[in-house]
Specification:
The structure holds two protein chains of two kinds. By secondary structure, chain A is α/β, with parallel strands linked by helices. Helix content of chain A is 59%, strand content 10%. Chain B has ten helices and ten strands. The chains are: A alpha/beta, B alpha/beta.
Chain lengths: 511, 268
């Protein structure tokens, strides 16, 4: 444990040059979570702020998960984002749902966070079934589910994990459903449409309800709390930029459920850019738009450009983190091979890092490093360490004893023994470790989009939310090509790094 | 002068001029059982001494103690008057050439790179290295065309010749060879034995040659020391061992190897 803390303590040091390399933070940064409603609200607020004359407004959308966005807010990486009261109580404050708004505000204020008045709509969780299932089983309320254990539930991972989600719901209603699967929210609709599942959790402002003709089951025993949309913001913003607060206030009580559902439908079903939908939402809600010209929503003409940009960003994330892992991982492997006492600690620490789930690691890093490229690089770097440290260690400790003894009896300097004998002999293993890390990194780096670091995860994430397969492929195909290219590239590098004598077939003429 | 200073890590310590090996009260045990227990043993400078005995008799252990690969439980080893200990080890190793059964050539380096490795580490200039290698090629009968090959591209006999060249590169005063020919087939082996004998006589190094083969012992060495269970049983010429064995084990060991007629063998 202390070894791991020691490593974590080193992280800020490693990240220091990168922090200085990032451009100065925008004056006000609006964040939003990784789903269209959050994007639209975030963009609408950013628009309003511009309208109020806030100079430099930046909207970082697609930040993944409540934990990540809230940590980013506390760390000051973003200044404000749209959240829901039910989520604040359950996920952020871990408080009973009987709390009043004043109690919530007081608790949040202790963390330096403010909460606005509700925006006007309640985006609660609900359970929905297909029309066919409703007819067949006569389902009307959540209580009705109890009589039909054959029903297949496809629930989002967040819903399955939250106490205000399925575990609480099942307890509250005494449900013991044998068929419960975890699925991605947007994939659940496809599963519903094709009849693979019968029930899913939805949001009440979900545009899909109408499109798929879903029936929302009545929460007859009043389990779900209210999910009133509010702004969560850094209290310091009141002092730093009062005009930003002004913009937030203007939207309080102005966005009702009908408007929100319509705004969601424009993006999810109508294929409109979320920026344009936010514009329309403002027009409907306030009778005026921002008056600030939008960047043109990207059309298909821009695809090669964005693919290139995302791929370049992806490659940058992969290679920089890999480079850092090589620079630190090989010496750690050498150290471990030198002292058996240290080997256990080093390998255990690197192994432990590997077991931290990626979202949890990102959430841990945000208080230290904020959001964006830096924490993404650090997370990728930490995940790359184990294969490199381990393979260096194994490569060095499996050199045949006669060769080690030859090296030890020639009278070579310690440096020559390491650099001319041991490391070259261990190089095939070390290269294999680097290759493993590189290929894993190409995959892991798609998660970087969740903390605003861009890359090929960006179109994948948006594509899943918008159910646009084309957009998903825009990320997935280059990622697959990149993984193959990285593998090929390192195969070529093997020829440069691994000495020719080690690549020869053993003993051609046995004499 | 520069060379001498480098060899001794800056300390002007030269020891005796005659590079003999002296061993006193040397004891090495492995988990309680005695691997080596020698009261007194010396190898006179510029002579070839063969250590022979059945496997497990301690002959390889003795060489490994001399090069400092393992540490004795007690006792003292000096080479040219300098004790082998942690502080003197590297300097002493530069005065010792050590060749093992499979040669221990580094597979990632060519023959030439293997041979030149230590000299480069010692800061020798290219021309000096080239000159030394070309001398050694003649001595060890290796065609220059083999120098660019990797160990995997050499035959077993060629590998051992290259290993010998590497051991001789710095012109050490002491040469320790641990069954260097054991893995080779008989024809190749006979040729190498002849060449080794010639090299030892030409260079007048202090040589300790370990083998389990009596004919080989007779072919390469002036003097033979027979070991058994970590102790010295008898020391003398091949003829001494055959004609006046110190105890029944010596006769038994000699009989088991069915030696050729002693009158036609032995040192000339």
């Amino acid at each position: 444990m202390s070894a791991r803390r020691g490593l974590l303590a080193l992280l800020p040091l490693f990240a220091l040059p990168l922090v200085f390399a990032t451009p100065a933070r925008a004056r006000v940064t609006v964040g939003s979570k990784a789903f269209p409603e959050s994007w639209i609200l975030g963009e609408a607020l950013a628009d309003r702020m511009r309208g109020e004359g806030v100079g430099n407004v930046n909207h970082r959308h697609n930040l993944g998960g409540t934990e990540i966005v809230y940590q980013a807010l506390r760390a000051g990486s973003i200044d404000v984002y749209p959240e829901y009261t039910g989520t604040i109580l359950e996920v952020i404050l871990h408080a009973p749902r009987t709390w009043t708004a004043a109690q919530m505000r007081a608790a949040l204020a202790r963390e330096g966070i403010g909460m606005s008045d509700p925006l006007g709509f309640d985006d609660s969780y609900a359970l929905a079934v297909t029309a066919a299932a409703q007819e067949r089983y006569g389902l009307r309320t959540i209580s009705d589910l109890a009589g039909h254990p054959e029903l297949r539930l496809g629930l989002t991972h967040e819903f399955l994990g939250r106490t205000d989600g399925y575990p609480g719901l099942a307890r509250h209603y005494g449900l013991t459903m044998p068929h419960v699967l975890g699925v991605e929210h947007e994939l659940a609709y496809a599963a519903l449409a094709s009849g693979r599942i019968d029930v899913t959790d939805i949001y009440t402002t979900d545009a899909q309800i109408e499109r798929l003709g879903l029936r929302v089951l009545e929460d007859d025993r009043r389990f779900f709390p209210r999910y009133d949309a509010v702004w969560l913001y850094r209290l310091a913003l009141e002092r730093e930029e009062p005009r930003a607060l002004q913009a937030m206030r203007q939207l309080e009580g102005k966005i009702d459920e009908t408007r929100m559902i319509r705004a969601n439908a424009r993006v999810v079903l109508g294929g409109q850019a979320y920026t344009a939908s936010a514009d329309s939402l403002l027009r409907e809600s306030l009778g005026s738009a921002s008056g600030v010209a939008h960047a043109t929503p990207r059309g298909f003409g821009d695809v090669p450009g964005s693919v290139f940009r995302n791929t370049a960003q992806h490659l940058k994330l992969v290679l920089l983190s890999l480079l850092a892992a090589i620079v630190l991982g090989i010496p750690l492997g050498v150290l471990a091979a030198r002292s058996p006492g240290l080997a256990g600690a080093i390998l255990a620490a690197a192994g432990l890092l590997q077991t931290i789930p990626s979202l949890a690691l990102l959430a841990l890093l945000i208080p230290l490093l904020g959001i964006g490229v830096v924490p993404a690089l650090v997370a990728l770097f930490l995940y790359s360490l184990l294969p490199i440290v381990r393979n260096t260690y194994v490569g060095l400790t499996t050199i045949p004893p006669p060769l080690l003894e030859s090296a030890a009896t020639l009278g070579l300097s310690p440096g020559a023994q390491l650099f001319r004998i041991r490391l070259p002999l261990a190089s095939p293993g070390i290269m294999a470790g680097i290759k493993t890390s590189a290929v894993i990194n190409v995959g892991s780096a798609t998660l970087a989009a969740l903390i605003g670091a861009g890359g090929l995860g960006e179109p994948i994430l948006s594509g899943i939310q918008l159910r646009q397969n084309g957009l998903i492929l825009e990320g997935a195909i280059p990622a697959a090509v990149l993984a193959l290219a990285v593998q090929k590239g390192f195969d070529l590098l093997d020829r440069l790094v691994i000495p020719k004598g080690l690549r020869l077939p053993p003993d051609p003429h046995q004499t | 002068m520069r060379f001498v200073r480098r060899q001794f890590g800056g300390r002007l310590q030269t020891g005796t001029t005659e590079p003999g090996i002296e061993i006193e009260a040397l004891r090495k045990t492995y988990s309680g059982s005695v691997a080596l227990d020698i009261e007194r043993f010396s190898v006179p400078a510029r002579q070839t001494l063969v250590l022979i005995g059945p496997s497990g008799c301690g002959k390889s252990t003795l060489l490994r103690l001399v090069v400092g690969l393992i540490r004795p439980d007690s006792g003292r080893i000096t080479i040219g008057g300098i004790p082998m200990e942690a502080s003197t080890r590297r300097a002493l190793l530069l005065r010792i050439g050590y060749v093992i059964q499979e040669g221990g050539l580094f597979p990632h380096l060519t023959a030439r790179e293997n041979i030149a490795l230590v000299a480069e580490d010692q800061g020798w200039e290219r021309a000096r290295i080239d000159a030394r290698i070309s001398d050694l090629l003649t001595l060890t009968s290796i065609p220059a065309s083999l120098l660019g090959r990797y160990p995997a591209e050499l035959s077993g006999g060629q590998r051992q010749r290259v290993a010998l060249m590497r051991a001789l590169m710095l012109d050490p005063e002491v040469l320790l060879m641990d069954e260097p020919l054991a893995a080779l087939d008989p024809m190749i082996r006979a040729g190498l034995q002849r060449d080794l004998r010639r090299v030892f006589q030409t260079l007048r190094k202090t040589v300790v040659f370990v083998t389990h083969d009596l004919a080989e012992a007779a072919a390469v060495g002036d003097e033979i020391t027979l070991l058994r269970s970590g102790r010295i049983v008898q020391r003398g010429s091949f003829r001494d061992l055959v004609e006046s064995p110190a105890d029944p084990f010596v006769s038994e060991f000699i009989q088991a190897q069915r030696p050729p007629d002693p009158s036609s063998q032995g040192p000339a």
